[in-house]
Amino acid sequence: MLRNTPFGVSFALALFLSGCAALDPGGRRADLPAVPTAAPRTTGIDTPQASEHKRLVALFGGEYRFPAAEIYLNGILVRLAQTSETPSEAYRVTILNTPMVNAFALPSGNLYMTRGLLALANDSSEIAAVMAHEISHVTARHASARAELEKNAQVISKAASLIQGRQKSDEVKASGRLSLASFSRQQELEADQIGVRAIARAGYDPYGAARFLTSLGRASSLRASLFGQRSGEEQPDILATHPSTPERIRQAVNVARQLGAPGLGLGARDEYFNAIDGMDFGDDPSEGFVRGRRFLHPKFGFIFTAPEGFALENSAQALLGLAGGGSQALRLDSVNVSSSQDLGTYLASGWMEGLDAASVRNVSLNGIPAAIGMARGGDWQFRVAVIRFNGEVYRLIFATRNLSANMDARFMESIESFRKLEGDEALRTRPLRLKIVSATQGESAASLSRRMAVGEQQLEQFLLLNGLESGAALRPDERYKVVVE
């Protein structure tokens, strides 16, 4: 969680739920928590190489330096390039420092893969499939084609507005959105097919694409269950820019079958595991740690605990949380406030619309100055606190559709849990990382999953990280991924 700029709040769900998910197919923001329906795709933006590279790297937490993985990924790129139709084309991969699962490619030949995606993949053919998919977007000039279609749609819509009025213009816009969505979905399927053939030419297992897409769909469902929401497959969006993950899996398998039987191509699981062993997992240490319902920020020296039932997710912009299937939410961020400005005055200064001015009062939280208040926006009610600690001002906002006295008491209890980290609390909280371990004779997925330093659903997360189905037997001396401190 980093400093966030001030914002006006006409709220409703926008404050909490409008951001992209950690498994977001579009990857425009690092916020929470719409559950995606498909795999990563390119950004589709043609801008100068240097500025676009800097913008993307900054947006996704900066560049993550892990030499073993960087060398290995660039080796895969070289192998793909040697068998491509444009072997002279130069590509370079950058690892992005975020637990989100995403990948991008720019027309410049820059490829981007998040460390969250690297953690989810289980062998070289899966990573090669993602890379080949992204490269195919560039070689097929999908970004330019999408931009041209959008431009044409805008021209047609404007003409309709001038000639036939606003109603007709709205109809044309709706039709254009459907056409663009359909066009984009076809691009994704085309990129999948090109990618499967590309990795097969390079000697990789062509079924790697389907395996990774399967893991991606499972990750989406698991994340949905953690946040009490339905999976993307259960919430179809006709304007989604991707075909559903099951559809992509079916098509990827069909293309792979035309190229050979399973297991004939290179998987290189052990080599890939060697490249990612010890890589950071989950939150960037500089942005704090989520540990169950607790959020600790060793750099800024504070800790607080969310109410029972909340699932938390951290990002570069804010800490976000959901409970009750999305009927309750929280947000914690920081903001620039003059050290001389009274916190109650800031709270009532207009950045939060619908604030009940009579509810604002200055308080002390474990010896820390703060101000609290209540607000209403549409169907939503809010309990909000601004807290001044170690020269920073933090905003902690809770939202619910029905702010009963009992629920408000729970929110206040969480606000009052905000305190300074004491003693060696910060030192005892270490970042998570991937560790590659070998299963011993008689060891099961359940027993090995108990090594996972994750707050919830240890077994489910172990199975997901290792591409295993429920009930799968572990093979002695086979290597697996676990998450440790």
Q: What's the gist of this structure?
A:
The chain has 485 residues and is an alpha+beta fold.
Q: Please state the average pLDDT score.
A: 79
Shape: elongated
Q: Tell me the number of strands.
A: 17
Which structural category do the helix and sheet elements fall into?
alpha+beta
Helix content: 25-40%
- The main sheet orders its strands as 8-9-10-14-13-12-11
Roughly what fraction of the amino acids lie in strands?
A: 15-25%
Determine the N-to-C terminus distance. 20 Å
> Biggest β-sheet: count, sense, barrel?
7 strands, antiparallel
For the record, the count of structural domains works out to: 3
Total helix count?
Answer: 15
Determine Rg (CA atoms, Å). 24 Å
Low-confidence stretches: 2-47, 142-183, 230-242
Notes on the structure:
The structure is a single chain. The chain has 485 residues and is α+β, with helices and mostly antiparallel strands. The protein folds into three domains: 35-278, no CATH class; 285-427, Mog1/PsbP, alpha/beta/alpha sandwich (Protein Transport Mog1p, Chain A), CATH 3.40.1000.10; 431-484, Membrane-bound Lytic Murein Transglycosylase D, Chain A (Roll). Helix content is 39%, strand content 20%. The protein contains 15 helices and 17 strands. The protein has helices spanning 14-17, 49-59, 67-82, 115-120, 124-139, 142-164, 166-201, 208-226, 245-259, 269-276, 343-347, 405-415, 425-428, 445-449, 458-465, and strands at residues 92-96, 103-105, 110-114, 280-281, 289-291, 294-297, 302-305, 311-314, 319-323, 328-335, 355-365, 368-377, 380-389, 392-400, 419-420, 432-438, 479-484. The strands form four sheets. The protein has a seven-stranded antiparallel β-sheet. Strand 9 and strand 10 (328-335) form a beta hairpin. Helix 6 runs antiparallel to helix 7, helix 8 (208-226) runs antiparallel to helix 9 and helix 8 (208-226) runs antiparallel to helix 15.
